[in-house]
């Protein structure tokens, strides 16, 4: 498991769990926001789905700061 700081984090690294889980024979991934995506036929397919999801999220404009 990766125990590095994320961008903007300071202090101790918080506990993190895997984004992937299996129910029956189907695989899913979960996001920080609590969104579960799937089912996928394999963990490899779920990992590919997560990569596609993250690529789309990176294209979204940043939310304006409230400061």
Automatic annotation (TrEMBL):
Top-level taxonomy: Bacteria, Pseudomonadati, Pseudomonadota, Gammaproteobacteria, Pseudomonadales
Entry protein name: DUF6316 family protein
Domain of life of the native organism: Bacteria
Domain DUF6316 residues, every copy: 6-58
InterPro entries for this protein: DUF6316
Organism, as annotated: Marinobacter xestospongiae
């Amino acid at each position: 498991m990766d125990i590095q700081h994320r961008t903007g984090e300071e202090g101790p690294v918080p506990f993190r769990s895997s984004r992937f889980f299996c129910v029956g024979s189907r695989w899913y991934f979960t996001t920080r926001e609590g969104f579960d995506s799937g089912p996928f036929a394999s963990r490899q397919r779920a990992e590919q789905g997560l990569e596609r999801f993250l690529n789309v999220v990176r294209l979204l404009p940043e939310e304006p700061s409230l400061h």
